[in-house]
Write a structure and sequence with these properties.
Helix content is about 40%, strand content about 20%. It has about 375 residues and is of the alpha/beta class. The strands form four sheets. A seven-stranded parallel β-sheet has the order 3-2-1-4-5-6-11, with helices on both faces. A four-stranded mixed β-sheet has the order 8-15-14-13. Strands 7-10 form a two-stranded parallel ribbon. The structure holds NADP nicotinamide-adenine-dinucleotide phosphate and guanosine-5'-diphosphate-alpha-D-mannose.
Length: about 375
């Protein structure tokens, strides 16, 4: 049977790297679009790229940018893929307040640029298109559990740019009979998560503190609640959405909710100590109250979590919880990772990084 061909935008990101691994396992030929960067941005996919013996004819990287139609058109026209996964984005909500125009150009117009190319190719090939939509679309919605029918209420330039992409994807599906779907994914994390997203920041810095490499974790809104899953599983759902006969949009969520504060407490427990909280609002802090592992480089009463105003947003989404009954039925979705398993996976990798740095420091002395 002929290998299927996929293009992944955002291949150097967290989700792109997991999706590339999955598609290669399924015998796809994978083409990734990477943008030009002055420093190396392929660390999440180097293991695929280097493995030339096995993947030499199956894995390709191309320079391109969602801001640059010419590069996108050239790549898509040449490859004529079966599937395109549009994962590229300025994906940081707080940064979108600092760069609203750039965020909209990449996240909103970038999607339109790809859809136009697909539309113009539709007499040559029916290319299936996946759009990385997001639970941020729900924003301030009053409904507690959000599903495919919950009204959107975006609260940031990021969410608003993704709202455009959500609708333009739906419009192109309905207007031109294209196979285009929105995966409305709730937060998903992993050891490959960027360091400036809250979960990875927590596991990375707390493992460094417990190895004596840092003193404090500075954090913003402790009370924000999220529905956190594992990125590896969520990437598989993207693929599943494109294997259905009819294009449809899906919510993917674990249906369990935890606060940033809970995430910190569970991470501390996984590392081997207990944290307690004192104070209020900006003066609140977390200190070590019990230590279960005597090898940890921390002390009882040590103040390890402090609040820093810098990490608050002009407008935050406080409460996100999903309902993914449709995906459970039609995609056979059932999360294998709960919050404890997710944290265990992240702490394990970050512990190794911290221990490696301790060894390096010792060797350099
Ligand atoms: P990520 O780690 O931030 O990856 C974003 C990717 O987009 C990176 O490969 C980045 O390249 C690339 N990119 C950024 N601007 C680009 C441009 N102008 N042209 C081409 N590529 C560009 O994000 P992620 O967590 O994997 O998320 C993947 C997608 O799902 C994003 O669209 C995100 O908004 C959406 N989403 C994520 C979640 C989540 O919880 N993770 C939930 C819902 C939706 P560099 O490596 O060069 O920066
Ligand atoms: N990043 C960050 N850093 N967030 C913090 C911090 C901090 O120091 N302290 C508290 N938070 C709170 C944020 O205010 C937010 O309420 C919550 O932690 C989660 O923040 P992020 O991890 O940055 O994720 P996000 O929910 O804003 O956005 C992520 O998930 C979306 C899906 O709902 C991103 O991956 C988006 O691209 C994605 O669409």
């Amino acid at each position: 049977m002929k290998n299927k061909i996929a293009i992944i935008t955002g291949i150097t990101g967290q989700d792109g790297s997991y999706l590339a691994e999955l598609l290669l396992k399924k015998n796809y030929i994978v083409h990734g679009i990477r943008r030009r960067s002055s420093s190396i941005n392929t660390s999440r996919i180097d293991h695929l790229h280097d493995n030339k013996k096995i993947l030499g004819k199956k894995f390709f990287l191309h320079y391109g940018d969602l801001l640059d139609s010419i590069s996108l058109e050239k790549i898509i026209n040449k490859i004529l893929p079966d599937e395109i996964y549009n994962l590229a984005a300025q994906s940081h909500v707080k940064i979108s307040f600092d760069m609203p125009e750039y965020t909209s150009n990449v996240n909103a117009l970038g999607t339109l640029r790809i859809l136009e190319i697909i539309k113009n190719l539709s007499n040559k090939k029916r290319i299936k298109f996946y759009q990385a939509s997001t639970s941020e679309l729900f924003g301030d919605s009053v409904h507690k559990k959000k599903d495919e029918n919950t009204p959107f209420f975006p609260k940031s330039p990021y969410a608003t740019s993704k709202l455009f992409s959500y609708w333009i994807t739906k419009n192109y599906r309905e207007s031109y009979n294209l196979y285009c779907v929105n995966g409305i994914l709730f937060n998903h994390e992993s050891p490959r998560r960027g360091l400036n997203f809250v979960t990875r920041k927590i596991t990375y810095i707390l493992t460094r503190i417990s190895n004596g490499l840092e003193n404090k974790l500075e954090i913003g809104n402790l009370n924000a609640k999220r529905d956190w899953g594992h990125a590896k599983e969520y990437s598989e759902m993207m693929w599943k959405m494109l294997q259905l006969k009819k294009p449809e949009d899906f919510v993917i969520a674990t249906e369990k909710q935890f606060s940033v504060r809970n995430f910190i407490e569970l991470t501390c427990k996984e590392i081997g100590f207990q944290i307690k909280w004192k104070g209020k609002n900006l003066d609140e802090y977390g200190y070590v109250s019990r230590i279960f592992d005597e090898n940890l480089k921390i002390k009882i009463n040590q103040k390890i979590v402090v609040i820093n105003k810098r990490f608050f947003r002009p407008n935050d989404v406080e409460d996100l919880l999903g309902k993914s009954i449709k995906a459970r039925k039609k995609l056979n979705w059932k999360p294998k990772y709960n919050i404890k398993k997710l944290i265990k996976d992240m702490v394990k990798e970050d512990k190794l990084l911290a221990e490696y740095e301790v060894l390096k420091k010792k060797a350099n002395k």
